[in-house]
Amino acid sequence: MKSLFTLLFASCIAFTTAAPLAAQTLITSEYEGTIPASIANFVLSSFGLSARNDIDYYTVTYTMNNLGGVQDTVSGLYVCPSAATTNALFPTLVYQHGTTNTKFDVPTRSQPGADLPYLYATQGYAVLAPDFLNMGDDQEGFHPYVHARTEALAALRMMEAMTAEPAYADVINSQLFLTGYSQGGHASMALHEILIEEFPNIEVTAAAHMSGPYSLSDIMLNEVALSSDAFGAPGFMPYTLASYQEVYGNIYTDLSEVFKPEFVSPVQAFVDGYETGAVGLSVLNQQLIDGLAAAGNDSMTVELFPASYVADLRANPDHPLRIALEDNDTYDFVNPTPTRLYYCLGDDQVNPLNSPFAADTMTALGATNTVAVELGPTLDHGQCVVPAVSESVDFFEDFQQIISSTNQIADAYEWTYIQNVEGLRIYTNEDEQEYQVNLFDATGRQLQTVRYRSGQLIDLSGISTSWAAVQVFDQEGRTTSKSIVIR
C-alpha cells in the first residue's frame, strides 16, 4: 500500500475553446468507484481541508503522438465531484505528478483517494491527471523525463480527448486551473506556456506551480549538477541524460562518455530495467550516493562525470546537453495568468532558487500577477507538499466558480442538440411539450431565456462568450444541463 500522496524524490481544467484542437481519441473510460466525503476527510485533515462533495474516479486511455510522431495510447486518471451528490458545473483542474520510483507509480495506479488529484476533486474541481508518455498503461519506451513538450501534450491531449466522456463534458464549465508538484511543477508550467503561446483561445483561469525545476539550463545545471555542494538525489542526473538521449539522440553514444567508470553499470541497469520497473530510481539513487561516498565526494553530483566532460560542458555554449536543457526551461514566456510559484527554502531536491528566478523573469517580461511564495525556511522537498497544496487550494478559491442548479434532477429526460452558425437547436424526447431554455455564462450570468419546443432555432448571434451552460426546464419544473461551445 502506498504512503499518503507518494512523491518519492518528488521532482517529486471544463475544457472548451472557440478553436477546437486537432482530434484526439478517447479509447477507454472506466468508472472505478465513488469515495464518500466522510472517507476523504481522513486524508484531507492533514491539509487543513474538508471535502465539499463525494468524488467519482475513472481510469482512461487516449491517444497522443510519441517521440517518433506516431500515435500512441497513454493513460490518465479523472476524478470529479460525484454525479450522485452534485448537480452543478465545475472548473477543470489539470494536475501533473512528480517524479516516481518506476514508470508504474502514477495517478491511475495510486491507492484510491490517496493522491493529490482526489484531494482537488473534493474541493469542487473536475480533475484530469495524465500519467505521462511511456508511463502507466503506456509501457513501451523510456519516459521522456523533464521533457517539456511531451509533459504538456500528455495533459493537452487528455483535455481534448475527455470532451468525448459525458461524465466530464457534461459537468464542466469554462474555467481551467493548472497545478503540479516538482516534476509536475515543471510539467504544469510547460502546459501553461504551450497554452499561452500556441492555443490562445484556451484561457487559463489561474495556475499554481509548486517546487518545480523550471530553470534546467541555469539553476539546476550550475547550482546542482556542476556544483561541489552535496545533493541527496543524484539519480536525477542520469535520468535526465537518458531521457534527453531518447528525445534528441545526441547526448552520448555510450554512457562511458558522460559518467565515470564506476557509475556506468548502475546507470545502465536503471535504463535497461526501466521498461519493467526492475531497477527503480530509489535503487539507482542509493547506488550513486554510496559510490560517491566511497570516493570521498559526499554526494557531489559533479563527481559523477569525467573531468573532461565537465570542462566541456562548462566552456561550450553549444554543448548538446546544454542546448537540450535550454529547450526544456519552462519560465521564459509572457504570462497574463494569475500565477503562484510555491516553494520552500529547505528543498533538498529542487533548488529553491528556481521559483523566484522564474517569477522574476516572467515579471520582467510583463506578467503583473506572478508571485513566488516561500512557505518555509527549513522545510525540505517532501515537507513542502502539504503547505504548497493547501496554499494552492486557497489561491484557486479566489477565482473558482461553480454553476449550480437548485432544482436539477439528473437524467429527468433526454435531450440532444445541434449547434452551428445558424444557432442552437435542442431536441427532446417529448416533441409536444413546451420547455424553458436558459443560457448562462461561466460566472452564472443569464445570457438568454426562451420558451421553446423541440427542434426550434435559438439565435446565438448576440452572445459573445465562447462557452455557455444550457438549462432546459420541462413543464413540471425539472431540469437538466449541458455545456456547449459557442461557434
Record keyword descriptors for this entry.
23% strand, ten-stranded mixed β-sheet, 3 domains, disordered N terminus, 487 residues, alpha/beta, Rossmann fold, four-stranded antiparallel β-sheet, 17 strands, Immunoglobulin-like
How would you summarize the topology of this molecule?
Layout: E1 26-35, H1 37-44, E2 55-65, E3 71-81, E4 88-96, H2 116-122, E5 126-130, H3 148-161, H4 166-169, E6 172-181, H5 183-198, E7 206-210, H6 216-225, H7 236-248, H8 261-273, H9 281-294, H10 307-315, H11 320-327, E8 339-343, H12 354-364, E9 370-374, H13 385-397, E10 403-404, E11 415-419, E12 424-428, E13 434-440, E14 446-453, E15 457-458, E16 467-473, E17 479-485
Parallel strand pairs: 4-5, 4-6, 6-7, 7-8, 8-9
Antiparallel strand pairs: 1-2, 2-3, 3-5, 4-10, 11-12, 12-15, 13-14, 13-16, 16-17
Helix pairs in contact: 3-5, 6-11, 8-9
Task: Describe what you observe in this structure.
It is a single chain. The chain is an alpha/beta fold and 487 residues long. It folds into 3 domains: 265 residues, Alpha/Beta hydrolase fold, catalytic domain (Rossmann fold), CATH 3.40.50; 103 residues, no CATH class; 77 residues, Immunoglobulin-like (Sandwich). Strands 1, 2, 3, 4, 5, 6, 7, 8, 9 and 10 form a 10-stranded mixed beta sheet that branches. A hairpin with a 5-residue loop joins strand 16 and strand 17. The protein is elongated. The chain starts with 25 loop residues before the first strand and ends with a strand. The N terminus is likely disordered.
